[in-house]
Specification:
Chain lengths: ~70, ~950
C-alpha cells in the first residue's frame, strides 16, 4: 500500500476518536488498528511511523506504541 | 412431491383478538371478529363459490357468486363482504342459491371463449372450477349477441374485441378471457401499490386497462406478477406456462436476488422450471414478489453459462476446458506453490453473498483451516461493513433489529440512503401499504426516490441532502431532539448508559450542530430538518430503514452510529414497529457476515484475537487458527500490487465490476499468480483468472440463505446442477485437493457444524427449519424459536452506548475540475453487477446505465436527453447516455452500475470508510461533458474482455 494511503487511513481513524479524552482516544485508535489491520499493514505502519512520523496525526503517533506488535512467525 | 396449493380463504385474515361464533350449514365455527362469512365458512371447511374474492386483496363483492342466506336477513348477501356476527346462522347451499349462482355463471360464460382444452390455464382456472362447482350445464343465451370474445362476429369486425397484449416479456394479457373481476387491479393497488391498472368504461364496456389504455410494457407496470397471480383465468398468464404447460410438482425455496429473501414455490414439470410463484406462508414476503424473483430466472439456462472447468497458464492465453481433477489439481498446486515461495499469508478467499450459508462457511473455513490464515472477505466489505461496526459498537450486534412485518406497526418511517421500491421491492410494497394506512414518511436522500411521491404516497419530509453530509444531518436531527427536550429520558436511563448520553447530549447541543448552522453545508432547509426531527421523536413508533447511501461513505460507520443514537434517544428500540433496519443488498449478505466471512471474525462475529473462540474451531477443525486479522478486499489488492499477496479464490462475486476504482482492482488482479473464479459466467473478474470453476444456481442445490431480518430460509434443490456439482461440493473438492480431508455429504451436516460452534445458531437444524418454515437468529436455548425483535429487554452489549458523531467532510470534494457530485445506485429490474439479470428479458426495462442529470447542469453543458456524455473523475472516465431529470438537484448526478460496458466504478475513487474500508461509492467529484461515444478506455476494455473470454476448442 502506498505510504500516503496508509497514513491517510490511520489519520481518518484518529479523526473519529478525536473528541474523546486524549488517553482514551489514543488507546481507541491503537485498539482499532490492532483489531482490523493485518500484520503486513501494521508492519508498514510501524516502519512509516519510525521513519516519517510527521505524516501522522499526533494522536496516531502516540497510539503507535500501543498497537499490537507483529508476532514472530 | 406434489403441487403445493395454498388454501385461498377468500378474504384476508382479521387481526382482532375478539372471537365470534356462528354456524355455517349447521357446523359451529369460531373466528376473530371482523372475519368475513366467506372466510369463516372456509375455516369450517366449506368453500363458497367465488370469483372476484381472493385472500390477497380486500373483499370487493362484484361477482355475485358467493351469495349465502343468513337467518333473519332479507335476500342473499355476498359472503365476502358480510362480516360475521355472534350467533349468525349461515346457509351456503339452498335451492335459491343454486339457481342464482348457476344464472350468474351462465352470464359469465356467455361472454367467454370455450377453448378450455387449448387454453393455457386449463387445469388452473377458477372460472372453469366454478362452472363445475355450480353445475353449469347449458348456456341459453348463445354467442350471437354482443361479446368480447372474437375478432369478427356475425360476419363483421367486432369493435369490442381487443387483441392479446404480449408486450411484457413474461406474461400476456388476453382481454377476450377477462371476466372483469378486478382482482388484478386490486392486487396492483393493495399488494404492490403501483396503481398501474384500472377498469376503464362502465358496465358491459368495462375493461382492464394498464395506465391510460397503454400496453403493459408502456404503462407504469413494474411486472411484479401480483396481477398474474390474482387472475382467476388465463387473461393474465405467464408465458412460460403458455409454452410449457401446467406444473405437476412444486418445491418451496428462497429467491437468490435481494436481501428481502422471498419464499417461492418453484413449480416444476419434471426437472423443467415452469414458473416461480411467491409463497403465501413465506414470512419475508407473505405471498408477494418482484420482477426479479418472479420472472428473472432464465440466466440459469443462458448460453453464456459455463459448465466445464477451465484453466490457463497466463491470462493472455485462451481458456482450456479440462476435467475437474485437472482444474482442481492445477489450482491446488499453484496455491501451495505460492505459499511455499511467498508465505502462508500470500493467498486468500472472497466468499459469496449470493451463495448459501453452508457454502460461505466452507470458503472461510478453507482459508482458516487449509490455507492457515484469516484472509477472507466478502462483498459486505463494500456495502454494509460500517453497519457491522456502527451497530456493533452501539447495540452490541450488527443485525437489523426487526422483522419486516414490524413495519405494519410503524407510525413514522425514516428511509435514509435507501430506495426500497427499487432495491428491496417486496419490502417496499409492504412499506407503501403501511404508508397508505397513514404512517408518516421521512426520506433522507440526495435523489427524489419514488417513495417521495408516488400514487397515494407522499413523504412528509424529503431532506435532499448534498452527498457526503449524512453525519451533519443525522447529528442535526439529534440536536433538535435534545435541545427541544424530545428525548425519552426513561428509556435512556433504563436501557442505556446515562453518562454517555449526557456526553452525547452536550456534544449535539452545541449550536454548531443545529440545523441552521449546517443548512448551507447540507443543502437542507433548517425548518425541514427541525420538523423531521420532531416528527420522528413524537410521531409514535419510529422505524429507521437505511441502505448503502448511509454506509458507502468515508464516514459510513459514523452515520450508522448516529442513526443508532437517534433510535436510542427516542426509545425506538426493542418492540414491534420501531428499530434500526439496515436493508441488506444481496440475498445472503447477512448470512455471509454471520458465517465468519470477515478477516477479523470467526462465525458469529467473534474476533480472531480471542483465544477462547479460536479454541472452539481449533478443536472442531483440528488445526491452529491465526490470531491475526487477515486482509480486507482493498488491502488484498494493495498487497497484490506490492507483490505479497498472489493467489485468490473468489466464489460468486465479481469484484472487478462491483468494487471501486476499477483500474486499481485490475492492477491488483493482474499482479496475482493464481486467481480462481468460481461462478456461473465468465464475469469481469474472470478476465484476470487462471482457473474457472463452474458454479451452480440456487435452483440446483440445498442450503440456507439469511435475509436482512436475520431470517434463515431454506434453499431447496429442484434440479440437478448443470455443472455437475453444487458450490459447496466444489469448495470441498478444492480443499481436499489441498490436503484437507473433508467429508460432507449434505449441507445439513455443515449446518450442524455451524450450530455446534456458533452460539446464535445453536438450535438451528434443517429439521427445525422444516417444521417452522424459517427462523430468525438468535436461535438457541434463550430463544428456541428465534427472535423477531432484538434488544427487547436489554441490548446485546448490555447497555446501549452513545458515541459522538463529529461531521468530517470527505476529501472527495467538488471543485473547478470536477464540479459535480456523482452518487450511484440501482434499479428495480437489474441486480447488482447484472450478471444474472442482464441475461434475462429484464433488459427490456433497463438495457444500459444512464446518467441522471439535472436540467440546469445539462443546459450549462449543452447536453440533451439521450446524448452521449463523458463522465470523468480523478480516477478515470467513461461515457454513457444522459437522462435529464429533476430527481437529482443541480450539482448532483446519478447512475447505476449494472452494466460492464459502462463500468461506473472506473469513476469511483479509493476513498473509504474510516473504520471498515467500505468504499465511498456514494460521493465522487466528476465532470460531465458531451461526447460522441464510448471512451478509449471502454473500447480497450471491450477488446480485453473479448480476448480474455476466448475458449480453445476441445481436441
Amino acid at each position: 500500500m502506498s505510504p500516503d494511503k496508509l497514513a491517510y487511513m490511520a489519520n481518518q481513524i484518529a479523526t473519529f476518536f478525536r473528541h474523546a479524552p486524549r488517553e482514551e482516544a489514543v488507546s481507541s485508535i491503537a485498539e482499532h488498528i490492532s483489531n482490523f489491520w493485518e500484520p503486513r499493514m501494521r508492519s508498514q505502519f510501524f516502519d512509516l511511523l519510525a521513519r516519517e512520523k510527521e505524516r501522522f496525526d499526533p494522536l496516531v503517533q502516540d497510539a503507535g506504541q500501543q498497537v499490537r506488535p507483529i508476532a514472530e512467525a | 412431491m406434489s403441487l403445493i396449493k395454498e388454501t385461498d380463504y377468500g378474504t384476508p385474515a382479521s387481526r382482532s383478538q375478539e372471537t365470534v361464533t356462528l354456524t355455517v350449514d349447521g357446523f359451529d365455527v369460531t373466528v376473530p371478529a371482523g372475519t368475513s362469512v366467506m372466510r369463516a365458512s372456509m375455516e369450517a371447511g366449506i368453500q363458497i363459490p367465488k370469483l372476484c374474492a381472493t385472500d390477497m386483496v380486500d373483499a370487493f363483492g362484484s361477482c355475485r357468486l358467493c351469495l349465502v342466506e343468513i337467518e333473519g336477513r332479507r335476500g342473499t348477501p355476498a359472503s365476502c363482504t358480510t362480516p360475521v356476527e355472534e350467533g349468525m346462522v349461515v346457509r351456503t347451499q339452498t335451492g335459491r342459491l343454486k339457481d342464482l349462482r348457476r344464472g350468474v355463471m351462465e352470464l359469465y360464460i356467455s361472454d367467454h371463449p370455450l377453448d378450455c382444452l387449448t387454453c393455457a390455464a386449463n387445469g388452473d382456472c377458477e372460472l372453469q372450477d366454478m362452472a363445475g362447482a355450480v353445475g353449469l350445464r347449458d348456456v341459453r343465451y348463445g354467442y350471437e349477441g354482443a361479446g368480447h370474445v372474437t375478432a369478427r362476429q356475425n360476419g363483421e369486425d367486432n369493435p369490442r374485441y381487443m387483441p392479446k397484449d404480449e408486450t411484457n416479456p413474461y406474461f400476456t394479457y388476453d382481454p377476450s378471457k377477462c371476466i372483469v373481476c378486478s382482482r388484478c387491479v386490486r392486487a396492483c393497488e393493495e399488494v404492490q401499490g403501483t396503481f398501474a391498472l384500472t377498469i376503464e368504461g362502465r358496465g358491459f364496456d368495462s375493461r382492464v386497462s394498464p395506465g391510460m389504455s397503454e400496453t403493459f410494457l408502456a404503462s407504469e407496470c413494474v411486472s411484479c406478477g401480483a396481477c398474474v397471480q390474482a387472475c382467476p383465468t388465463a387473461t393474465l398468464q405467464e408465458k412460460s406456462v403458455i409454452e410449457i404447460g401446467q406444473p405437476e410438482h412444486s418445491v418451496v425455496t428462497t429467491c437468490a436476488y435481494c436481501g428481502v429473501g422471498c419464499s417461492f414455490k418453484a413449480e416444476m414439470r419434471g426437472d423443467e422450471l415452469v414458473r416461480m410463484v411467491p409463497y403465501k406462508d413465506g414470512k419475508a414476503n407473505a405471498g408477494h414478489s418482484c420482477v426479479k424473483g418472479r420472472f428473472a430466472y432464465g440466466y440459469a439456462n443462458h448460453r453464456d453459462r459455463i459448465l466445464n472447468p477451465m484453466i490457463r497458464e497466463t491470462i493472455d492465453q485462451p481458456w482450456r476446458e479440462v476435467s475437474w481433477d485437472e482444474a482442481l489439481g492445477f489450482a491446488a498446486s499453484r496455491l501451495r506453490g505460492i505459499q511455499e515461495a511467498h508465505g502462508k499469508e500470500a493467498i486468500g478467499v472472497i466468499t459469496s453473498s449470493r451463495c448459501t450459508n453452508e457454502e460461505t462457511y466452507l470458503v472461510q473455513k478453507l482459508t482458516r483451516a487449509v490455507f492457515g490464515n484469516n484472509n477472507t472477505d466478502t462483498c459486505a466489505r463494500v456495502c454494509h461493513s460500517p453497519t457491522g461496526y456502527g451497530l456493533g459498537q452501539t447495540f452490541g450486534t450488527s443485525a437489523g433489529t426487526q422483522d419486516f412485518e414490524s413495519v405494519e406497526q410503524a407510525d413514522v418511517v425514516v428511509v435514509i440512503g435507501a430506495n426500497p421500491t427499487d432495491g428491496h421491492p417486496v419490502f417496499g410494497s409492504r412499506l407503501k401499504k403501511r404508508l397508505r394506512q397513514g404512517a408518516r414518511l421521512i426520506v433522507i436522500d440526495p435523489r427524489r426516490i419514488d417513495l417521495v411521491k408516488s400514487p397515494h404516497i407522499a413523504a412528509a419530509h424529503h431532506l435532499a441532502l448534498r452527498p457526503g453530509t449524512n453525519v451533519a444531518v443525522v447529528t442535526a436531527l439529534a440536536h433538535v431532539i435534545v435541545t427541544e427536550g424530545l428525548h425519552d429520558e426513561t428509556f435512556i436511563r433504563e436501557r442505556c448508559d446515562w453518562e454517555e448520553f449526557q456526553d452525547y447530549a452536550e456534544f449535539v447541543a452545541d449550536p454548531a450542530h443545529s440545523p441552521e448552522a449546517v443548512e448551507a453545508l447540507t443543502g437542507v432547509p433548517a425548518a425541514e430538518m427541525r420538523a423531521a426531527a420532531r416528527l420522528y421523536a413524537q410521531g409514535g413508533n419510529g422505524a429507521i430503514y437505511y441502505g448503502l447511501g448511509v454506509t458507502e461513505h468515508s464516514q459510513g460507520s459514523t452515520t450508522v452510529i448516529g442513526i443508532a443514537n437517534l433510535a436510542m434517544m427516542t426509545g425506538n428500540i426493542g418492540r414491534p414497529g420501531v428499530g434500526v433496519n439496515p436493508l441488506r443488498g444481496q440475498n445472503n449478505v447477512q448470512g455471509s457476515c454471520d458465517m465468519g466471512s470477515f478477516p477479523h471474525e470467526l462465525p458469529g462475529y467473534r474476533h480472531v484475537k480471542n483465544a477462547d473462540v479460536r479454541a472452539i474451531y481449533e478443536a472442531a477443525w483440528g488445526v491452529d487458527i491465526s490470531p491475526e486479522p487477515g486482509l480486507r478486499i482493498p488491502n488484498m489488492l494493495d498487497a497484490a500490487v506490492d507483490g505479497s499477496f498472489r493467489g485468490l479464490y473468489v466464489q460468486g462475486e465479481d469484484i472487478l465490476q462491483s468494487d471501486p476504482d476499477t483500474k486499481h482492482v485490475s492492477a491488483g488482479l493482474a499482479a496475482m499468480d493464481c486467481v480462481i473464479v468460481h461462478d456461473l459466467f465468465l464475469n469481469e473478474t474472470a478476465n484476470y483468472a487462471h482457473v474457472f470453476l463452474p458454479g451452480s444456481t440456487f435452483l440446483e442445490k440445498d442450503g440456507t440463505f439469511t435475509n436482512a431480518e436475520r431470517r434463515i430460509n431454506r434453499v431447496r434443490k429442484v434440479m440437478a446442477p448443470r455443472n455437475g456439482y453444487a458450490d459447496w461440493e466444489v469448495t470441498q473438492l478444492l480443499a481436499n485437493a489441498m490436503g484437507a480431508n473433508w467429508n460432507y455429504t449434505h449441507p445439513r451436516e455443515i449446518m450442524a457444524e455451524i450450530a455446534a460452534t456458533t452460539p446464535s445458531f445453536a438450535n438451528v437444524t434443517y429439521k427445525l427449519l422444516e417444521e417452522m418454515g424459517s427462523v430468525q437468529w438468535p436461535c438457541n436455548d434463550a430463544s428456541p424459536e428465534g427472535a423477531p425483535v432484538m434488544h427487547v429487554d436489554r441490548f446485546v452489549r448490555g447497555r446501549g452506548r452513545f458515541i459522538r458523531t463529529d461531521y468530517v467532510a470527505t476529501d472527495e470534494r467538488a471543485g473547478p475540475r470536477f464540479p459535480l457530485l456523482l452518487t450511484t445506485g440501482r434499479i428495480l429490474s437489474q441486480y447488482n453487477v447484472g450478471a444474472q439479470t442482464r441475461r434475462t428479458d429484464n433488459v427490456v426495462w433497463h438495457s444500459e446505465d444512464v446518467l441522471e442529470i439535472n436540467a440546469h447542469d445539462a443546459e450549462l453543458r449543452g447536453v440533451k436527453e439521450g446524448d452521449w456524455v463523458k463522465l470523468a473523475s480523478r480516477s478515470g472516465e467513461t461515457s454513457l447516455r444522459a437522462q435529464i431529470t429533476d430527481r437529482v438537484s443541480p450539482g448532483v448526478v446519478y447512475t447505476t452500475f449494472h452494466h460492464p460496458g459502462t463500468q461506473a466504478n472506473v469513476i469511483t475513487t479509493d476513498y473509504s470508510d474510516w473504520a471498515t474500508n467500505c468504499p465511498e461509492y456514494k460521493v465522487t467529484a466528476v465532470q460531465v461533458s458531451r461526447s460522441n461515444g464510448p471512451t478509449d478506455w471502454q473500447e480497450e476494455y471491450e477488446r480485453l474482455s473479448a480476448r480474455s473470454r476466448r475458449i480453445e476448442a476441445a481436441e
